[in-house]
Amino acid sequence: MAILNSIASWLMKKRMHQIELFMKYPHDVQNEWLLNLTSSAHKTEFGKAHHFKSITNYEQFKQQVPIQDYESLKPLIERTRRGEQNLLWHTDIKWFAKSSGTTDKSKYIPVSKEFLDGCHYNGGRDMITFQCINNADTKLFTGKNLALGGSFKTDNFGDHHSYHGDVSAIIIQNLPMWAEYFRAPDVNIALMDNWEDKLEKMALSMANENVTSLAGVPSWMLVLIKRILELKKVDDLKDIWPNLEVYFHGGVSFTPYKELFEKLFNNNNVAYMQLYSASEGFFGIQDERVSDEMLLMLDYGIYYEFIPVSELQKENPKTLNLSEVQKDKDYAMLISTNAGLWRYQVGDTIRFTNLSPYRFMITGRTKQHINVFGEELMIHNVELALKTACEKTKAHIIDFTVAPVFMTDNTGAHEWLIEFEQEPNNLDFFISVLDDTLKHINSDYEAKRFNNYVLQKPIINLLPKNTFYNWLKDNNKLGGQFKVPRLSNDRATLEDVKRSLLKYA
């Protein structure tokens, strides 16, 4: 295995030359991709309708192609699911990544061969490349990567068959042979539909494997690791996987989970690498150990545009290409992809921390915030405040959701449901730190909290263990693609969690 490890590491490191190329010439690479995408799709129904053949630059592209969302593309996507081709992309599409997001409405994101090979598989390769670069003595290829995946289903439309499922399941099902060799568990377990049975079988099969890396959503990875520790009757994961060296994570913010993982790993020098991967594409990788910032990956068959957050509510928002963005400003991201998404709003907001090369951090969701009272509370505000409160009260959070308490006597509040792994040693102090931190980092929140004129102090409800797990289970939402909505402008999610809590009381 040592020779195989050396060869594989060397091959991965060779990729750095190409990465350095787009880091040095980002705008040239992006312009090439824009013309490549429009040229490839100019004979599609969408390409003909928007005159792709005549597009020679970005200004033409944004003049001829309106900003899209799922609803505007849905008719063409549904026709593709039923067997029509050459509608959004020029090659056949039979796979669709089912994305739930934070609502009950399912989206079916088209997945082309070019998208799998040139985007997701390149992303998987590059996260390993950066691990090899950052750890010269890596033993990554002497063992297996434990990857949490979803499942997929077949759709029958007469004589035509298409497939939908979690993007991780689609990736696993279509993995190239070399990647499958280093992945675990067995595909028959990895793609099981019943999430509870899958976790148990994964725990049993992986407890005696030589695992050198982990990949998956933090909340579900925690459940799996804890079960493996129970099976092996040990407290230190190093006793089970002595060669574990890196955890690749994404899907949700890692901030609420980091301390929990450090505790599980018992500070055994396991590296953490953040990824920005979604059903719509693979966008960013943490390329440096010293920072949580991610490098924007520019050669994955994606053309990027950005909407300043201040423009989001406008009917015709201003859009920028990569050469026009600025540091330390929040943008909603638009993508055009080699699977037929065109000027598609992903739903995340990002902030560039560096422009040479382009590094960024995710700052929130365009639709996941609270602004009932003019407080403009964003997810990155909340996560920082929670982190600060946890540090000062020695608390560890599993999950949470927040919703408004609507005004009575001209004042309202924010109600929090929090499930702790370890509860704060002083709840009142926890609330005070949370509140004071939000005031410090968000001037709109501070103004609304002044003398309790608009907003009262946060209301915190401590939940029993497994509350959110039971709620997800009751709503058939077990699995890595489903996430607890963190911030809501209405009380629907919060009240539903409360009802679930009563059921298990």
Characterization of the model:
Helices cover about 40% and strands about 25% of the residues. By secondary structure, it is an alpha/beta fold. The chain folds into 2 domains: about 1-25 and about 70-305, Rossmann fold, CATH 3.40.50; about 370-505, 2-Layer Sandwich (GMP Synthetase, Chain A, domain 3). A hairpin with a 6-residue loop joins strand 13 (about 330-335) and strand 14. Helix 14 (about 380-395) runs antiparallel to helix 15 and helix 15 crosses helix 16 (about 445-450). The longest helix is centred in the N-terminal third of the chain and has 22 residues, at about 115-135. It is globular, with a radius of gyration of 23 Å.
- Biggest β-sheet: strands ordered side by side in the sheet: 6-3-7-8-9-10-11-15-14-13-12
Mean pLDDT across the residues is 90
> How much beta, percentage-wise?
15-25%
What general outline do the C-alpha atoms trace? globular
β-strand number: 20
Radius of gyration: 23 Å
Describe the sheet with the most strands.
Answer: 11 strands, mixed
The CATH architecture term of the largest domain is: 3-Layer(aba) Sandwich
Number of helical elements = 18
Catalogue the unreliable spans.
none
The CATH class assignment of the largest domain is: Alpha Beta
Question: What name does CATH use for the topology of the largest domain?
Answer: Rossmann fold
Structural class: alpha/beta
Helix amount, in percent? Answer: 25-40%
Give the tally of structural domains. Answer: 2
What separation lies between the terminal Cα atoms? 51 Å
